[in-house]
Amino acid sequence: YYLTVEATDGGTPSLSDVVTVNINVTDINDNTPVFSQDTYTAVISEDAMLEQSENKPIGFSVLQLVVTDKDSSHNGPPFLFTILSGNEENTFQINQQGVLTTTAALNRKVRDHYLLHVKVADNGKPPLSSLTYIDIRVIEESIYSPAILPLEIFITAFGEEYSGGVIGKIHATDQDVYDTLTYSLDPKMEHLFSVSSTGGKLIAHKRLDVGQYLLNVTVTDGKFTTAADITVHIRQITQDLLNHSIAIRFANLAPEEFIGDYWRNFQRALRNILGVRRNDIQIVSLQPSDPPSNLDVLLNIEKSGSSQHPMRILLHKINSSVPDLEEILGVRIIDVFHKLCAGLDCPLKFCEEKVTVDENIMSTHSTARLSFVTPRHHRTAVCLC
User: Fold this and answer.
1) Dist. CA 331–CA 321, nearest whole Å
2) Residue 115 pairs with which residues in a beta bridge?
3) Quick one: which of 145, 232, 230, 141 has its CA closest to 181?
4) Nearest-5° Cα angle at 164, 161 to 168
5) Which residues on neighbouring strands pair with residue 7, listed in sequence order?
6) What is the pLDDT of residues 288-342, one digit of tens each?
7) What domains are there in the chain, each with its CATH number?
8) How far apart are CA 251 and CA 268, in angstroms?
9) Backbone conformation region of residue 165, classed left if phi is above 0, alpha if psi is from -120 to 50, else beta
10) In angstroms, rounded to a whole number, what is the distance separating the alpha carbons of residues 191 and 188?
11) Of the candidates 285, 299, 290, 300, which has an alpha carbon nearest to the alpha carbon of residue 255?
12) Contact (CB, 8 A) for 56 and 101
């Protein structure tokens, strides 16, 4: 603070003088440094052959300690870190920046667990300090490669392109319990797709034309890398296709359960019943029905409505085969319908029906091997008489 002080006497005439007073308020060291965690944990793999290795060389950074201090800078950093106990063999050290590193190769057969008691002191006079623990487990080096399950993704697009979004999740496993998996995508496809490096979530991040895309995805545990191909099918639906769609309602079935456990068998069973190719039977939309525990599946049968596959014959074949389908799948089918007007007290010639989709409400239903991205559909029937 800078103060200007004036002193005036009582004489006639009065005399005065002015002086400047400079007041400095200095910080005292009254706040201890604080660790960001009461206990830190780390898992590191041992060094091969008990000597410097390419994977975990001596001087390997184990973790970063984070410390804050509410005092001013001259009473805070640089901090002094001291390992009080647990480091009798001097296997670890901590530098002024709080980075814990190894000073020797690790051998889990000799020692597989360290509990370091660590103190940090600030730069004040006298210095203040805080304590924390670092729990370190030493594991065997990774010996297994990650495994990726093949994934096929089917996207329903109303129009000639898909607007983008989350389209599925890549599932990978590793028999090394402590391994952390990192996902990546072929750079050539990064202008169209991206993948979450930690979770494997696959995203289409721009408008994609109808067609088929082949993506090469890699997963690494830091030592081994595995690659796999992901196939993305973007299929166009039109109003005419919707007008010739067939809806089947299943009881007590979730979308992911249907995709993962029943879809392929259902496709094969319908193929045999209808006398069509398996790939001629495609999902247009999946959504919970009322009550939400039930499931509506909107299907398209290629060439349905044509002279080769008249819709009324397809419907008759499916309805007459419901008991067989239920026995094959082990689920209950509530209804199979194409025309809502059949349930209205209205002459068919006065009944107007329509199936529409809302492309702004897209749902992604993903399992380990299959993913479907479909719009919400609506079925309406109005009596015009």
Assistant:
1) 14
2) 135
3) 145
4) 120
5) 17
6) 987 778 999 999 988 655 555 677 788 889 999 999 999 999 999 998 876 566 5
7) 34-139 (2.60.40.60), 147-236 (2.60.40.60), 241-383 (3.30.70.2470)
8) 20
9) left
10) 7
11) 285
12) no
